[in-house]
Every structure is written in structure tokens, then in C-alpha cells.
Amino acid sequence: FGPDAIRYFLLREITLGMDGNFSREALVNRINADLANDFGNLLHRTLSMIGRFNGGMIEATGDVDAIEQELTKLAENTVLQYEKSMDEMDINTAIKSIWTLISRTNKYIDETGPWALAKDEAKRGRLNTVLYNLAETLRIVSILIYPLMPVTAPNVWKQLGIEQDFAT
Question: What is the mean pLDDT of each run of 10 residues along the chain (168 residues)?
Fold first, then answer.
């Protein structure tokens, strides 16, 4: 499973300083649900669409709608909740706040339909806005997960074309 998956599972499932239960089945279920289906799906869909629709580049954005404002606000609140939770050593809550953002961003893809926007050149600005917001959310998530998954986060940075190592 790799060290990041095991670390993620333990931090997500077991409250710091408390006893917890471990089973292979619970590990596999958590990895499949959170890391593969939620986070992995968001990363794969975003990178695929950026590659397919914009040749791997994030272009200048167009108009920002209410849905982007909502996503941006959620991202800002996620960072604040994460910082508060980590300061209080409440790692479970910190992780849950990250996954709330990931889930909302996956829903954002379905709501905005970038595949449909890509078919209409007149909607190019809107498509760029959606793709930018997806990449930006992944950037934020990857920074937040770095303490939890120090191997995965830099891999996400590379896939997003981010050369700076935020860990230093």
C-alpha cells in the first residue's frame, strides 16, 4: 500500500493518543474510498482535462461565477479549519476538512461540465476558469496533505507542473 496510504489510514481512523482498530479490510476500504475514488479521481480528471482541452497548460481565466466564489470560500475556510485543527492536534478533523473540499471539487466538475465547455469555442474563457479552479484546489490540497502524505504531495506538485518544493 505504501507508507503514505498506511499513514493516511492511521491518522484518519485513529484519534491521536487513543486506541484504535486496524483491519486490512478497513484499510482497503479507506484507501479505495478516499485516496482512489475521491482524491485520485479528482487529480486524474483534472490533469486529463487540462491535457486534453488546453494542451497541458492553464490559460487565463474568464468570468468567475457564484460557483467559483463558493469553491474559493470553501478552500479558504478549509485552510483555516485545517490550521486550527492541526494546532489543536485534532488531525482527524483536519483530514475531514480536506476531504470535504475534495468532495466539493469533484462535484464542481460535474456541475460545470468542462467537457461540454470544451466543445464551444465561445465558452473558452469559462473552460479556463473551471480548469484553473480545479488545478488551484489541487495545489491547496497537496500543500495541506504534505504533513500526512509526504511522498504523495510532491508527486502531485510535479504533475501540476509546480517546480517549487513547498515543504522547504
Answer: 90 82 86 90 98 92 91 98 97 96 98 97 95 97 96 94 69
